[in-house]
Amino acid sequence: MDQEFASSLLENAVSEFAKLPGIGRKTALRLALYVLKQDKESAHRFGEAIIKLRDEIQYCRVCHNISETEVCPICSNPTRDHGTICVVENVKDVMSIENTHQHHGLYHVLGGLISPMDGVGPQDIEIDSLVDRVKAGGVREVILALSATMEGDTTNFYIFRKLAPYPDVKITMLARGVSVGNEIEYTDELTLGRSIQNRTLFSDTFHKEG
Amino acid sequence: MDQEFASSLLENAVSEFAKLPGIGRKTALRLALYVLKQDKESAHRFGEAIIKLRDEIQYCRVCHNISETEVCPICSNPTRDHGTICVVENVKDVMSIENTHQHHGLYHVLGGLISPMDGVGPQDIEIDSLVDRVKAGGVREVILALSATMEGDTTNFYIFRKLAPYPDVKITMLARGVSVGNEIEYTDELTLGRSIQNRTLFSDTFHKEG
């Protein structure tokens, strides 16, 4: 796609769209031409939504989730279990876990994972503030809900070590196992091995799902 | 995806992204979170590119293609064949045809196709201005390069009728046939039938491609 655009305005808009993840030049052109077809108000609403999102967004002082207020609705909800903190990589993970309705405690959004390859160290993500929350007391359990990747595991181990001085705090992590709906035949051996090691009582599982 | 967003700014940006063609709520969320991760300057550049694109874009007075000037570079290029006008649906089609390097004449961008189902009539697209160009004289050939759809065919016939008073102007259309690289087995019968009717001399085709 080495197209000459008839206008630098179009060229510029296409380049901007093409910076988005998963959007190539071809799709970017389609999106820019879509914007051109809309009325001016629509284009303004769209452009300003992007600018305002970045300019005016706030993060919860406690858990670093996106928030309209200094402390987010989850952290300030007295009916949630303030003794359990679920540690996640990003804002999207909070939404995913909230959608399961299985976690009734609070969150802690790291804002990334330790990744030496990408130059992300422990000081670049919100680990110190997690340790501070545990140090402040009242926390019974920290649930590590990070991706089952090398970066996730590295970050898990680092947090585990950092929280070693607080032996009363139980540190748990998400179960690894066969995905619901997946066939054994297509499950990788590592996952299958973990799912055998960590097998659960049939009666427990049945009870939980019922 | 019935997610509660922690911020109306995020909700708003996701809704705006989700209005784009081919972008669902899930992708829209991914794009909005990407914007959040960028610095403020990037978000401003992106948002303003969209607003400026829609606000400041100009169209060529002659062919209605996107242009930086009152008359576009193609229409004002004396080395192009001003006696041949290629009629296309939209700006993207001009780019596609320019990329083939097979058309050396001018264009005429209709800005749509006649589609009674969508309430688009002949007066909603740039047909009258095409007739005016032909009426003004100097045009030897009008190439109808519209999609091989019902709307394309309807528009072709309408233009054909409108240009009937100018019998000296040759009206041609894109050849219908088997796509280059496609197997006969998977070509639909209608296309295959047209490609037999309109078969070309092997020596001509060989010569053209050589």
Task: Please give a quick description of this structure.
The structure is a homodimer of 210-residue chains. With 210 residues, chain A is α/β, with parallel strands linked by helices. Chain A contains 8 helices and 6 strands; from the N terminus they run H-H-H-E-E-E-H-E-H-E-H-E-H-H.
Give a description of the structure:
2 copies of one chain form a homodimer. Chain A has 210 residues and is an alpha/beta fold. Chain A has 8 helices and 6 strands. In chain A, strand 5, helix 6 and strand 6 form a beta-alpha-beta unit. The termini of chain A are far apart. The relative contact order of chain A is 0.07. The interface between A and B is large, with 59 and 59 residues.
Features:
homodimer, 210 residues, alpha/beta, four-stranded parallel beta sheet, two-stranded antiparallel sheet, 8 helices
Give the SSE layout.
2 copies of one chain form a homodimer.
Chain A: H1 8-18, H2 25-37, H3 40-56, E1 58-59, E2 66-67, E3 81-88, H4 91-100, E4 105-109, H5 128-135, E5 141-144, H6 150-162, E6 170-173, H7 189-197, H8 202-209
Parallel strand pairs in A: 3-4, 3-5, 5-6
Antiparallel strand pairs in A: 1-2
